[in-house]
Design goal:
Layout: E1 2-7, H1 12-24, E2 28-34, E3 54-58, H2 64-74, E4 78-81, H3 88-93, H4 95-116, E5 125-131, H5 155-174, E6 178-183, E7 186-187, H6 196-205, E8 210-213, E9 219-221, E10 223-224, H7 225-238, E11 244-247, E12 252-254, H8 255-269, E13 281-284, H9 299-305, H10 313-326, H11 328-335, H12 338-347
Parallel strand pairs: 1-2, 1-4, 2-3, 4-5, 5-6, 6-11, 7-10, 8-13
Antiparallel strand pairs: 9-12
Helix pairs in contact: 1-7, 2-4, 4-5, 6-8, 8-10
The chain binds nicotinamide-adenine-dinucleotide and thymidine-5'-diphosphate.
Thymidine-5'-diphosphate (TYD) binds near residues 195, 199, 211 and 213.
């Protein structure tokens, strides 16, 4: 029996991790802690919320006293920490929110773990979920390895880099058992439509302009979210204390090529004439400090822990489109209300 705290479990990746652990480990007790910001949505977990080994707690990781009391009361065996402000564009307009949740929130969890687990560190684990964006931007060639020096450019990536440093510092200074993984861009179901792929799916569906920043030349390395959740499962159970693993799918796409593929898939699904949706592509003002290219070398994870991605991108993208078309209510619910105001501010006059 293990009691595991998963933070940010109502978000995109967190909900896939919670679902996987609840279903695959009936003898674990999974406690999902989430503030339910605009990105957190309990509808992401409807299918598992009645399971006996699942529990939800609404709380803010920025509240140090609450985190400390929670850890003392619950005596968790491990933490898988995903709660974060996660969108680069929002970090450009409100960097402080990213410092609060991503840096202060992570330090609060580390302090709560350090104090409540004292004398028992070898039986406990603090797993921090991070991003490849901490490594900065690549040129036309090369890949990020676990040895690549940190060089973050956006307030989002700077806050994640800072949280990674704190996690390592707590391992090196206090001997806490910590593990970090840095993953490339995820895609799949339950992805909030502020990010490129679900935003484009929603706009194509509604025949709205599909905004592509700059010339669409930026490259991202896309991984199916369930492959990320599976990697987290493997790393959580098998990694040695203090280790770091990069996770990625060797799947680089220029934004414009990805959007053209998506348009073509959706033309077929929606019974539109081939090429109709591509007419919605609209080049807009580039993102400030836009990283040119990300590419992950996940050789270490493949070699040491035997993880390999399971799904080809075209197949995964089709599955993703199918999910959004079949879950119209989910999409309508998350794009009503405050999303409209966000969209207007982010894209108006761009
Ligand atoms: P998301 O924005 O979909 O979800 C974040 C969740 O954290 C939400 O449920 C939100 O309510 C919760 N949260 C935010 N602030 C909180 C706070 N102060 N207290 C408690 N809960 C809070 O993000 P995601 O895309 O699922 O990313 C999850 C993690 O994975 C993040 O740490 C992110 O940096 C990392 N990551 C994401 C990607 C990606 O492609 N999306 C890639 C690599 C790593
Ligand atoms: P995003 O999904 O925000 O992820 P990240 O910035 O963390 O990589 O963006 C993916 C890529 O798509 C990135 O190069 C920015 C670009 N992009 C657009 O061209 N248009 C958009 O409307 C959005 C949200 C992103």
């Amino acid at each position: 029996m293990k009691k595991i705290l998963i933070t940010g479990g109502a978000g995109f990746i967190g909900s896939h991790v919670v679902r996987r652990f609840v279903k695959n480990y009936p003898d674990y007790e999974i406690v999902n802690l989430d503030k339910l910001t605009y990105a957190g949505n309990l509808a992401n977990l409807r299918d598992i919320e009645a399971y006996d080994n699942y529990r939800f707690i609404k709380a803010d990781i920025v509240d140090a006293a609450e985190m400390s009391q929670l850890f003392k009361r619950e005596n968790f065996d491990a933490v898988i920490h995903l709660a974060a402000e996660s969108h680069v564009d929002r970090s450009i307009s409100d960097p402080t929110a990213f410092v609060m949740t991503n840096v202060i929130g992570t330090v609060n969890l580390l302090n709560a773990a350090k104090d409540s687990w004292k004398g028992d560190y070898e039986r406990k684990r603090f797993y921090h979920v991070s991003t490849d964006e901490v490594y900065g931007a690549l040129g036309e060639t090369g890949m990020f390895t676990e040895e690549t020096a940190y060089d973050p450019h956006s307030p989002y990536s700077a806050s994640k880099a800072s949280s990674d440093h704190f996690v390592r510092a707590y391992h090196d200074t206090y001997g806490l058992d910590t593990v970090i993984s840095n993953c490339s861009n995820n895609y799949g179901s339950h992805h909030f439509p502020e990010k490129l792929i679900p935003l484009a799916i929603n706009n194509i569906k509604n025949e709205l302009p599909v905004p592509v920043y700059g010339k669409g030349e930026n490259v991202r390395d896309w991984l199916w979210v369930e492959d990320h959740a599976r990697a987290i499962d493997v790393i959580f159970h098998k990694a040695a204390s203090g280790e770091t693993y990069n996770i990625g799918g060797h799947n680089e796409w220029k934004n414009i090529d990805l959007i053209r593929l998506l348009c073509s898939i959706m033309d077929k699904k929606l019974g539109r004439e081939e090429g109709a949706s591509a007419g919605l592509i609209t080049f807009v003002t580039d993102r400030a400090g836009h990283d040119l290219r990300y590419a992950i070398d996940s050789t270490k994870l493949q070699r040491e822990l035997g993880w390999v991605p399971s799904l080809q991108f075209e197949e995964g993208l089709e599955k993703t489109v199918d999910w959004y078309l079949e879950n119209e209510k989910w999409l309508n619910d998350v794009t009503s209300g405050s999303y409209q105001a966000y969209y207007e501010t982010q894209y108006h006059g761009r």
